[in-house]
Amino acid sequence: MPPRQRRGRKRQEEERRTVLLVTNGRTTETAYFAGLGRHVDRKKYSVTSKFINGDPLTLTKDLKGDRWDLSAYTEVWIVVDHDGIDRQEFLKECRGLCSRRTVVHGIVSVPCFEVWLNAHYAPVRNYQNQTEAQAHYRALTGLSTKNLPADFPWDAMSDAAHRCHLPTVSEPAIDTQGPCPSTTMPHLLRRLGLL
């Protein structure tokens, strides 16, 4: 006689998602991603962040090279600033890096990453350029440089997702370049289970 089966199915554990975060932002982005990695559920996600120097197309070109094995990751997110330059070609290159094993996403913050950081403190303003967004960041944090404060409000991620674009504008779709000011960072946080 075969053994009795238990009622209900045995819950299968999901495979741990391996995520690579790549940025060309040496200071604030690098610090933010280091902190972000400490907030994810480590049983579900393995998050690695890397800095690559250069413009956005240099990042995608570098990631195509032999020194990177993107197949080791289930997802790769490449985070860049708009910097007053259309990033459609960058987003196209990100799509070209995708494989059967790895999905590659591009995040463009318009005009810069400070849009996302500012949204943790307050709604973004109608910044016309990086200078205005960075000045607002310094005013919000009390810092004189582009650093992440020790008391950064990590618990405001959900608020930031709603405040990282103007109220009259919808959140930009994943893998797109939104209007100024905006960012597609909320898509990353949703994938990491933080929203």
Topology:
Layout: E1 17-23, H1 28-37, E2 45-51, H2 56-64, E3 75-81, H3 88-96, E4 103-109, H4 114-119, H5 130-141, H6 157-163, H7 185-191
InterPro entries: RloB (IPR025591)
Pfam families: RloB (PF13707)
Protein name: RloB domain-containing protein
Features:
single chain, 195 residues, alpha/beta, four-stranded parallel β-sheet, 7 helices, globular
Task: Write a structural description.
The protein has one domain. Helix content is 31%, strand content 14%. Helix 2 packs parallel to helix 3. The longest helix is centred in the last third of the chain and has 12 residues. It is globular. About 3% of the residues have low confidence.
Number of helices: 7
Distance between the termini: 49 Å
Number of DSSP strands? 4
For the residues shown, what is the average pLDDT? 92
What's the main sheet like?
Answer: 4 strands, parallel
The H-and-E topology, N to C, reads as EHEHEHEHHHH
Total separate domains: 1
